[in-house]
Amino acid sequence: MTVTVETTGAFEIPKPLNELSESEIVRKAHIGRVSTEVLRYLTDALTGRGFTWLLPVIFSKSTDPLWPDPGASIEKRVETEIYGETVRTTLSMIIHKLVASSTAYPRFFVLSPNVRIEKRERKATGWHTYEFTQLDFEIRGAGSKDVKRLFEAVIAGLIRHAKKQARRDLTYLGRYGSLKAPVTPFKAHDREDLMAKYGAEWETRLPQEIREPVWVTNIPREFYDFEDPATGRWDNYDLFVPKYGEVLSGARREWEYGRITAKMERDGVKKESYTLLLRMAKEGKLKPSAGAGIGVERLTAWLAGAKHIGEVQAFPKVPGVVYDL
Ligand code: ATP
Ligand code: ASP
Ligand code: MG
Prior knowledge:
This protein is an alpha+beta fold. Helices cover about 35% and strands about 20% of the residues.
């Protein structure tokens, strides 16, 4: 998706640390403190609710296919060979999440670096980087409602926390007054209704229309999101915030071998890239779950009122731009 980020004046690509003026260094430091409170609050909120905190992986034989997804825009997939085997850098840890939540970690999260070489024109969305971090979590036995209610509470709590603990920073950034703890539960829209209202551009139009975060459900995409065979509806959910756009994506999951393989065949996803997942599913070892991933930089950019998502990265990774560091 493409998003017009709230910005006045000319669009500016974030500068590297060594090129910042003194006032830009002050601004960067304020954003850094907002980011710290985001991480502190989210990790406390989840560990406090009984989540196990796992560390991320970088190289794997299986990663997110990121296909089919109408919004996907990957210029290059990074693969390399180690010890005679082909591995890929993490596009998302979704496959690991399905396996982990089915076995030793029924309720966990991970701060997971994702490498997605987005098409270079995505520099102009202000909302994409080619390295970012997802706070990715999965809950065995959960449904969509559980995840939505949990994250409504977490987002509202985060805003209250940030306004208290990062008051000076948000004030400097001009965001203290406009940032309000949202009313819960959030409204939910079916993607089909949004298509009827806004057309194919709904992902960019919706953020311009809303004043509070909203859920969007029933979005056709990768095999692992649950598709109800009776209705054809997808049991998934994305969270959109005003002016910026999507900050979280998640779903209830498929776990049955026959359904997963049928979807892979339908979508042209290579089964040989998902050997372990399919073996577990065939043996009945994959368990029903639901979860989601939050883009940490996007969430921080929204809270801080950043001009470009790269502004919240100490070392920006803007599509099409390779900095020295
Ligand atoms: P978009 O449609 O905005 O390109 P996506 O739907 O392809 O994003 P997901 O695969 O759903 O992204 O990734 C999960 C979350 O990770 C997103 O909701 C978002 O917060 C974050 N994210 C995805 N791609 C990027 C990116 N290139 N830069 C920063 N954050 C991202
Ligand atoms: N993290 C997302 C999820 O949990 C998947 C993705 O990144 O595409 O559904
Ligand atoms: Mg998404």
